[in-house]
Amino acid sequence: MEKFTFFYRTESPFSQWHPALFEIDGVYFNCAEQYMMYQKAMLFNDAEIAAQILSAQTPREQKELGRAVRNFHREQWETNCKQFVYEGNYAKFTQNQQLLESLLVTQGTTLVEASPTDRIWGVGLSEDDPRILKRETWRGTNWLGEVLTELREDLFTEMNK
Length: 161
Fold this sequence. Notes:
Elements lengths: L3 E4 L14 E3 L2 E3 L2 H12 L3 H9 L3 H9 L6 H21 L2 H8 L5 E4 L29 H17 L2
Parallel strand pairs: 1-4
Antiparallel strand pairs: 2-3
């Protein structure tokens, strides 16, 4: 039977909103959400919003700015967004030892964003909903959980070379 590690709130190290400083290509980010929204703005050549995202201190502001990106095309976003989330989380976890340890101890489980409101990145169910215990009854795709589970496996492979 498949085992799960559920997460949802900002306090969880697996949340995109969890505070974690990291750097990619000389640019510093305060959480994975900021990186994701910055990459969204850059993908659609919106340098103005990208700069505002870098200045925004909270994930809530960063997400709102991400929604304001000009020239947005859903198909193009969906082709690229998981890679951005992977890259941001790779940096987040490899540059923060305590967070890395939190990720590695989930080995043997599938990470699941237990967000009752997010059916794309999460499963559309809260942790206390019995339907969350079976993948077949999820109401969402769990993209974030998939990316983090893949990242954890890749990090184990890297560490054991």
